């Protein structure tokens, strides 16, 4: 469910009066997405997405996200382009929330990942990293390695109720990850998406019938961090089967396509296993926190944190970059 | 949340291969609706809604609903038109569910009802009733007066936990309603929508800036019943303020616009108060049943049954049709 804030007709019309988008034709809530309220908006000018930014997003960071999307779209990345009102501003206010209209992107996100998705994904990720290279303003990763210890502390009281011994296992795993984590001056840094899960990547069929990436969405975890960490997030999000096994065919397709556009340095290749462990830890901890902090009756789908414990264990056992598909 | 069934890309493509809708361009879950899974579907041929029928809908009744929509659309009613596949059939199967594609209707449902919505609503309801007059096949109202006693029985164990004394009050109110209920041969019978709440009615601005009805959706409670009962449902759904007071201006606008196209008979006018009590009872009982039967942790928004207790009490106190806006 991704409509947390209802927008009255009057408020919507007043809001749209500041844009040059023509007659309002339709306005429907979108089920996808968990952080913000998203509406499909149709006007005489076409299809758009209206987003109301909810509590998890810091309003002071919204200009950075919107500027990054505008920068990337201007360089040919298929990502939502913030639409400016007649006064030139894209970030506005609606129903008491910060709000923005972005262009609608065609395409479908893959409900079931196939190996054919992973090469175009790898190429799109590399293009994203290259296009972000001249976006100068930095945004620290609020869910990077420095955040994991404090997050684990907040899960300590309830963690073992999810699985006995979980907290001790995470203490040890986190210590190992942080000890092996590469310094930010040893690997290439840049603008990363940091949350490129299948529901954030749209595909359309190409002329040859194979899927092509038509768009990347939901940049509200984007930040300035190790580029290879973004790959590690994708390996976590795209390369495991439903039964928990790692699909090295998908991983190889993703990595090879990425490297055709941006070859990884020796240091990046060597760091990939620990980056994958870190990415597994990041999603494990945020899911675990949501799991322990969400009241049982809340209208929120809680995602299983233990899925990422299994991924963390896989990456901890992996014997070097080659076993990950490099 | 109105996506209960996830559809894989492969299943969707196989499903669409039976239609002549051109290239698949987008497929997004829609947040609105509570009974079925609804997706916004965009193809080279335009915008459509794909509905997967979930448990509450009896698959054997779907042909009736789809035939009614086709009948009404052919008579100029703005309602979803079932799209036929190349074999001529609109009702198909997808992801283990009955499924159908319908045309997309432009317009917005009013998040906040204003008196200006009620005259166009009354006109649209009358046109719906007139257009259904030559749709011969009948479908009994599964949530009509015969269903209310059994429904109240199922709420008996848990009802008083919602409000002390509630079950006894409903026993007395239901006996009064059933004793005064008009026989079906005394009032005009026809095809009614039976669930015409604001989220099922789309509006667009007319040339004069006033709202016009652009579409009626969600015909899956439609049935053959007293036409005036459909008006009673609308008076319940559209004519109360958030504070529980009855807005007679809205009701008068609705009823006057309806009667310009289909004047009510003396018997219908006399029956309107008890029909309103019955409609309040119907929504009270289904909400009460959902309230008492839904586990506290379920991912379903439970609607407050007591809102309809207040409406029931209002209609029980109402002194004749004039006090309702007739």
TrEMBL record, chains A, B:
Q: Tell me which CDD domains the record gives.
A: HomoserineK_II
The record's keywords, sorted A to Z, are: Amino-acid biosynthesis, ATP-binding, Kinase, Nucleotide-binding, Threonine biosynthesis, Transferase
Could you say which enzyme class this protein belongs to?
Answer: transferase
Q: Name one GO molecular function term.
A: homoserine kinase activity
**Which Pfam family is one of this chain's hits?**
APH
What EC number(s) would the UniProt record show?
Answer: 2.7.1.39
Q: Where do the Aminoglycoside phosphotransferase domain residues begin and end?
A: 27-264
An individual GO BP term: threonine biosynthetic process
Is Transferase tagged as a keyword?
yes
HAMAP family recorded: Homoser_kinase_2
Q: Mind telling me what this protein is named?
A: Homoserine kinase
What is the native source organism of this protein?
Answer: Roseicella frigidaeris
The record's gene field reads thrB
